Amino acid sequence: MVLRRPRSGHIPLAVYRINYRPPGIAPPRSSSIKRSSPNCTPFGENGYLATAFIILLCGDTHSRKRRYKFTKWPPSTTNRCWTLLGFLSTIGLIDKCFLSAASKIGTRPMVGHRIVVTGMAGAGKSTFSRVLSAKTGLPVICLDLHSWKPGWVRVPEGELLEKQRILLAGERWIVDSNDVNNDLLFERADTFVVLATPWWICSWRAFKRGIRRPRDIQLPTGCEESLSQRLRDEWGIVWRNWRNRISVRDRDFNLASRCRSLMQVHILSSKNEMAEFADRI
To answer: pTM above the 0.85 mark?
Structure first.
Protein backbone atom coordinates (compact mmCIF):
# COMPACT_ATOMS: atom_id res chain seq x y z
CA MET A 1 0.00 0.00 0.00
CA VAL A 2 1.48 3.37 -1.08
CA LEU A 3 0.53 6.67 0.53
CA ARG A 4 1.45 9.89 -1.24
CA ARG A 5 3.08 12.74 0.61
CA PRO A 6 0.85 15.80 1.22
CA ARG A 7 1.78 18.91 -0.75
CA SER A 8 2.36 20.94 2.38
CA GLY A 9 5.25 18.74 3.37
CA HIS A 10 3.77 17.91 6.78
CA ILE A 11 3.98 14.29 7.87
CA PRO A 12 0.90 13.35 9.91
CA LEU A 13 1.95 11.57 13.08
CA ALA A 14 1.10 7.83 13.38
CA VAL A 15 -0.02 7.70 9.73
CA TYR A 16 3.15 7.78 7.63
CA ARG A 17 6.30 5.77 8.13
CA ILE A 18 9.44 7.34 6.64
CA ASN A 19 11.74 5.25 4.46
CA TYR A 20 15.28 5.73 5.69
CA ARG A 21 18.06 6.23 3.11
CA PRO A 22 21.63 6.35 4.42
CA PRO A 23 23.78 9.20 3.05
CA GLY A 24 25.59 8.45 -0.19
CA ILE A 25 22.99 6.02 -1.55
CA ALA A 26 20.94 7.13 -4.51
CA PRO A 27 17.21 7.53 -3.84
CA PRO A 28 14.76 5.08 -5.43
CA ARG A 29 12.78 6.13 -8.47
CA SER A 30 9.53 6.44 -6.55
CA SER A 31 9.39 9.37 -4.14
CA SER A 32 6.36 8.00 -2.30
CA ILE A 33 6.21 7.20 1.36
CA LYS A 34 5.31 3.57 2.02
CA ARG A 35 4.08 1.59 4.94
CA SER A 36 7.28 -0.42 5.12
CA SER A 37 8.77 -3.04 7.39
CA PRO A 38 9.48 -2.31 11.09
CA ASN A 39 13.20 -1.87 10.35
CA CYS A 40 12.77 0.88 7.73
CA THR A 41 14.04 3.59 10.07
CA PRO A 42 17.10 3.82 12.28
CA PHE A 43 14.81 4.07 15.30
CA GLY A 44 13.49 0.48 15.20
CA GLU A 45 9.96 -0.82 15.18
CA ASN A 46 8.24 2.45 16.09
CA GLY A 47 10.78 4.71 14.41
CA TYR A 48 8.22 6.76 12.53
CA LEU A 49 7.22 8.42 15.80
CA ALA A 50 10.74 9.47 16.70
CA THR A 51 11.55 10.46 13.10
CA ALA A 52 8.41 12.56 12.77
CA PHE A 53 9.19 14.18 16.11
CA ILE A 54 12.67 15.26 15.00
CA ILE A 55 11.45 16.61 11.65
CA LEU A 56 8.46 18.47 13.05
CA LEU A 57 10.55 19.97 15.81
CA CYS A 58 12.50 21.94 13.22
CA GLY A 59 9.59 23.16 11.11
CA ASP A 60 8.29 22.56 7.58
CA THR A 61 10.16 20.47 5.03
CA HIS A 62 10.51 20.31 1.26
CA SER A 63 8.30 17.50 0.04
CA ARG A 64 10.31 16.87 -3.11
CA LYS A 65 13.62 16.37 -1.35
CA ARG A 66 14.63 12.92 -0.16
CA ARG A 67 17.04 14.36 2.36
CA TYR A 68 15.10 16.86 4.41
CA LYS A 69 15.89 20.57 4.39
CA PHE A 70 14.43 22.70 7.12
CA THR A 71 12.99 25.98 5.89
CA LYS A 72 11.01 27.54 8.67
CA TRP A 73 11.84 28.63 12.18
CA PRO A 74 10.20 29.03 14.63
CA PRO A 75 7.72 26.24 13.84
CA SER A 76 4.11 27.10 13.21
CA THR A 77 1.31 26.42 15.71
CA THR A 78 0.34 23.29 13.78
CA ASN A 79 3.90 22.01 13.90
CA ARG A 80 4.09 22.72 17.59
CA CYS A 81 0.99 20.58 18.16
CA TRP A 82 2.48 17.74 16.12
CA THR A 83 5.74 18.14 18.03
CA LEU A 84 3.96 17.83 21.37
CA LEU A 85 2.11 14.72 20.22
CA GLY A 86 5.34 13.20 18.94
CA PHE A 87 7.10 13.93 22.21
CA LEU A 88 4.31 12.36 24.28
CA SER A 89 4.18 9.32 22.00
CA THR A 90 7.93 8.87 22.22
CA ILE A 91 7.81 9.10 26.01
CA GLY A 92 5.03 6.49 25.99
CA LEU A 93 7.17 4.13 23.93
CA ILE A 94 10.12 4.64 26.27
CA ASP A 95 7.93 3.97 29.29
CA LYS A 96 6.53 0.82 27.68
CA CYS A 97 9.99 -0.49 26.84
CA PHE A 98 11.21 0.31 30.35
CA LEU A 99 8.35 -1.56 31.98
CA SER A 100 8.86 -4.54 29.70
CA ALA A 101 12.55 -4.68 30.52
CA ALA A 102 11.91 -4.19 34.24
CA SER A 103 9.46 -7.09 34.30
CA LYS A 104 12.15 -9.36 32.84
CA ILE A 105 15.10 -8.30 34.98
CA GLY A 106 13.22 -7.74 38.23
CA THR A 107 14.74 -9.49 41.22
CA ARG A 108 11.42 -10.61 42.67
CA PRO A 109 9.91 -13.63 40.87
CA MET A 110 6.27 -13.53 39.81
CA VAL A 111 5.47 -16.84 41.53
CA GLY A 112 6.89 -18.73 44.46
CA HIS A 113 7.14 -22.46 45.12
CA ARG A 114 3.79 -22.96 46.88
CA ILE A 115 1.00 -21.77 44.60
CA VAL A 116 -2.75 -21.95 45.11
CA VAL A 117 -4.95 -21.54 42.01
CA THR A 118 -8.62 -20.88 42.69
CA GLY A 119 -11.70 -19.76 40.81
CA MET A 120 -15.23 -20.65 39.81
CA ALA A 121 -15.98 -24.12 38.47
CA GLY A 122 -15.03 -24.08 34.80
CA ALA A 123 -12.63 -21.12 35.17
CA GLY A 124 -9.71 -23.18 33.82
CA LYS A 125 -7.90 -24.01 37.06
CA SER A 126 -6.68 -27.45 35.97
CA THR A 127 -5.45 -26.29 32.58
CA PHE A 128 -3.71 -23.24 34.02
CA SER A 129 -2.12 -25.32 36.79
CA ARG A 130 -0.67 -27.73 34.23
CA VAL A 131 0.76 -24.78 32.29
CA LEU A 132 2.37 -23.41 35.46
CA SER A 133 3.71 -26.87 36.26
CA ALA A 134 5.34 -27.12 32.82
CA LYS A 135 6.91 -23.67 33.31
CA THR A 136 8.11 -24.07 36.89
CA GLY A 137 8.53 -27.83 37.32
CA LEU A 138 6.28 -27.83 40.39
CA PRO A 139 3.96 -30.83 40.93
CA VAL A 140 0.20 -30.25 40.68
CA ILE A 141 -2.09 -31.31 43.53
CA CYS A 142 -5.77 -31.56 42.59
CA LEU A 143 -7.71 -31.54 45.84
CA ASP A 144 -10.88 -32.73 44.10
CA LEU A 145 -9.23 -36.15 43.65
CA HIS A 146 -8.77 -36.36 47.43
CA SER A 147 -12.27 -35.17 48.31
CA TRP A 148 -14.05 -38.40 47.35
CA LYS A 149 -13.89 -42.02 48.48
CA PRO A 150 -14.67 -44.95 46.13
CA GLY A 151 -18.29 -44.93 45.00
CA TRP A 152 -18.55 -41.13 45.13
CA VAL A 153 -18.67 -40.95 48.92
CA ARG A 154 -17.76 -37.48 50.16
CA VAL A 155 -14.75 -37.35 52.52
CA PRO A 156 -15.74 -35.93 55.94
CA GLU A 157 -14.65 -32.37 56.57
CA GLY A 158 -12.23 -33.20 59.39
CA GLU A 159 -10.57 -35.96 57.37
CA LEU A 160 -10.30 -33.70 54.34
CA LEU A 161 -8.60 -31.00 56.42
CA GLU A 162 -6.07 -33.54 57.67
CA LYS A 163 -5.39 -34.64 54.09
CA GLN A 164 -4.81 -31.04 53.10
CA ARG A 165 -2.28 -30.62 55.92
CA ILE A 166 -0.33 -33.63 54.70
CA LEU A 167 -0.45 -32.62 51.04
CA LEU A 168 0.58 -29.02 51.74
CA ALA A 169 3.41 -29.97 54.11
CA GLY A 170 5.89 -30.01 51.22
CA GLU A 171 7.86 -27.02 49.99
CA ARG A 172 7.07 -27.25 46.27
CA TRP A 173 3.53 -27.63 44.87
CA ILE A 174 0.67 -26.13 42.91
CA VAL A 175 -2.79 -26.67 44.38
CA ASP A 176 -5.74 -26.65 42.00
CA SER A 177 -8.88 -26.15 44.06
CA ASN A 178 -11.37 -23.63 45.43
CA ASP A 179 -11.77 -25.59 48.69
CA VAL A 180 -8.40 -24.93 50.32
CA ASN A 181 -8.73 -24.23 54.02
CA ASN A 182 -8.12 -20.53 54.65
CA ASP A 183 -5.84 -21.10 57.63
CA LEU A 184 -3.67 -23.45 55.60
CA LEU A 185 -3.67 -20.97 52.75
CA PHE A 186 -2.40 -18.15 54.95
CA GLU A 187 0.14 -20.41 56.64
CA ARG A 188 1.65 -22.35 53.74
CA ALA A 189 1.10 -20.61 50.40
CA ASP A 190 3.44 -17.96 49.01
CA THR A 191 1.46 -17.26 45.78
CA PHE A 192 -2.29 -16.93 45.35
CA VAL A 193 -3.76 -16.86 41.83
CA VAL A 194 -7.45 -16.05 41.26
CA LEU A 195 -8.92 -16.96 37.88
CA ALA A 196 -11.75 -14.44 37.61
CA THR A 197 -13.17 -15.89 34.39
CA PRO A 198 -16.69 -14.54 33.62
CA TRP A 199 -19.41 -16.87 34.84
CA TRP A 200 -20.99 -17.35 31.40
CA ILE A 201 -17.70 -18.65 30.00
CA CYS A 202 -17.37 -21.05 32.94
CA SER A 203 -20.93 -22.24 32.40
CA TRP A 204 -20.38 -22.77 28.68
CA ARG A 205 -17.30 -24.90 29.41
CA ALA A 206 -19.25 -26.98 31.92
CA PHE A 207 -22.04 -27.44 29.39
CA LYS A 208 -19.55 -28.75 26.81
CA ARG A 209 -17.91 -31.04 29.40
CA GLY A 210 -21.27 -32.63 30.04
CA ILE A 211 -21.58 -33.58 26.37
CA ARG A 212 -18.00 -34.76 25.97
CA ARG A 213 -15.56 -34.90 28.84
CA PRO A 214 -11.96 -34.03 27.92
CA ARG A 215 -9.55 -36.94 27.99
CA ASP A 216 -7.10 -35.28 30.38
CA ILE A 217 -9.62 -35.03 33.25
CA GLN A 218 -8.96 -37.52 36.04
CA LEU A 219 -11.60 -39.06 38.27
CA PRO A 220 -11.11 -40.01 41.94
CA THR A 221 -9.92 -43.54 42.60
CA GLY A 222 -12.77 -46.04 42.51
CA CYS A 223 -15.28 -43.56 41.10
CA GLU A 224 -16.90 -44.37 37.78
CA GLU A 225 -19.11 -41.95 35.91
CA SER A 226 -22.05 -42.68 33.65
CA LEU A 227 -23.34 -40.38 30.94
CA SER A 228 -26.43 -39.43 32.92
CA GLN A 229 -24.37 -38.66 36.01
CA ARG A 230 -21.93 -36.55 34.02
CA LEU A 231 -24.75 -34.56 32.43
CA ARG A 232 -26.38 -34.02 35.81
CA ASP A 233 -23.17 -32.90 37.49
CA GLU A 234 -21.76 -30.70 34.72
CA TRP A 235 -25.02 -29.10 33.66
CA GLY A 236 -25.80 -28.47 37.31
CA ILE A 237 -22.67 -26.30 37.37
CA VAL A 238 -24.29 -24.06 34.76
CA TRP A 239 -27.13 -23.24 37.13
CA ARG A 240 -24.90 -22.92 40.20
CA ASN A 241 -22.49 -20.58 38.42
CA TRP A 242 -25.33 -18.25 37.53
CA ARG A 243 -26.83 -18.44 41.02
CA ASN A 244 -23.49 -17.83 42.78
CA ARG A 245 -21.94 -15.52 40.19
CA ILE A 246 -21.71 -12.60 42.63
CA SER A 247 -21.00 -14.45 45.87
CA VAL A 248 -18.13 -16.50 44.39
CA ARG A 249 -16.52 -13.42 42.89
CA ASP A 250 -16.81 -11.46 46.15
CA ARG A 251 -15.42 -14.42 48.12
CA ASP A 252 -12.37 -14.75 45.88
CA PHE A 253 -11.69 -11.01 45.80
CA ASN A 254 -12.03 -10.66 49.56
CA LEU A 255 -9.69 -13.59 50.07
CA ALA A 256 -7.21 -12.03 47.65
CA SER A 257 -7.29 -8.74 49.55
CA ARG A 258 -6.55 -10.58 52.81
CA CYS A 259 -3.63 -12.40 51.21
CA ARG A 260 -1.90 -9.34 49.72
CA SER A 261 0.10 -8.61 52.85
CA LEU A 262 1.15 -12.26 53.24
CA MET A 263 2.02 -13.44 49.72
CA GLN A 264 2.01 -12.58 46.04
CA VAL A 265 -1.51 -12.21 44.62
CA HIS A 266 -2.46 -12.32 40.94
CA ILE A 267 -5.99 -11.87 39.56
CA LEU A 268 -6.41 -13.01 35.95
CA SER A 269 -9.75 -12.39 34.27
CA SER A 270 -9.27 -13.67 30.71
CA LYS A 271 -7.55 -16.37 28.70
CA ASN A 272 -5.16 -13.82 27.21
CA GLU A 273 -4.10 -12.60 30.65
CA MET A 274 -3.41 -16.18 31.72
CA ALA A 275 -1.29 -16.80 28.63
CA GLU A 276 0.66 -13.55 29.12
CA PHE A 277 1.21 -14.37 32.79
CA ALA A 278 2.56 -17.83 31.92
CA ASP A 279 4.83 -16.36 29.23
CA ARG A 280 6.42 -13.94 31.70
CA ILE A 281 7.44 -16.68 34.13
So the answer is: no
